[in-house]
Amino acid sequence: DRMSAEDVKSSKVSKEGRPPRLYVKGAFVTFRRSNANQRNRCAILQIDGVNSKDDVEFYLGKRVAYIYKAKRARGKHSRVQKESGKQLSRFRVIWGKVQRAHGNNGLVRSAFRKNLPPRALGGAVRIMLYPSRI
C-alpha cells in the first residue's frame, strides 16, 4: 500500500509560479515576564523546526519582521516607483532581531525597534535568513 515516487510527485500541488520563500516562519509567543512583571521590550518567539538550544545558534542575529495590515494606506518606500509617484500599501512592518535563546526548547528572545503591540500575541513573524554568519 506504499506510494511510489511517481504517485507522490503527481499528488503534490504545483507551485510553479510562486518564488521560493526566503524566510522561516515563526510565532510571537509572549513577552519576557516573571509572575509579577512583564518586559515589553523583549519578545519571545517560536521558530518553526527549532526545538533545542543548539538549533537556535544558527538564527542568532537574524532579522525578524512582524507584518500587519493598517487601516489607512501609506506611501511605500520603493526605488522602482520613484518616477511614477508613490505606491500605496496598507501593509506595515516592525523590524527586530533575534538576540539569544530562551530556555532549552528552542524559543528565542528578540528585540524590535518598536515594542510589538499586544494584538500581535500568537501572530506570525518572519525570520529572515540574513545577515549570514556563515
Topology:
Blueprint: H1 5-11, E1 23-33, E2 38-47, H2 53-56, E3 63-75, E4 88-102, E5 107-112, E6 124-128
Antiparallel strand pairs: 1-2, 1-6, 2-5, 3-4, 3-6, 4-5
Uncertain spans: none
Radius of gyration: 19 Å
What is the H-and-E element order?
HEEHEEEE
Strand order of the largest sheet: 1-2-5-4-3-6
Largest sheet: 6 strands, antiparallel, barrel
N→C terminal distance: 43 Å
Helix content: under 10%
What's the total helix number? Answer: 2
Strand content: 35-45%
DSSP strand count: 6
Q: Shape, please?
A: globular
Q: pLDDT average, as an integer?
A: 88
Content-based structural category: mainly beta
Describe the structure.
The structure is a single chain. The chain is mostly beta strands and 134 residues long. Helices cover 8% and strands 45% of the residues. It contains two helices and six strands. It has helices at 5-11, 53-56; strands at residues 23-33, 38-47, 63-75, 88-102, 107-112, 124-128. A six-stranded antiparallel β-barrel has the order 1-2-5-4-3-6. It is globular, with a radius of gyration of 19 Å. The protein starts with a helix and ends in a 6-residue tail after the last strand.
Short description:
It contains two helices and six strands, in the order αββαββββ.
List the defining traits of the structure above.
single chain; mainly beta; six-stranded antiparallel beta barrel; 134 residues
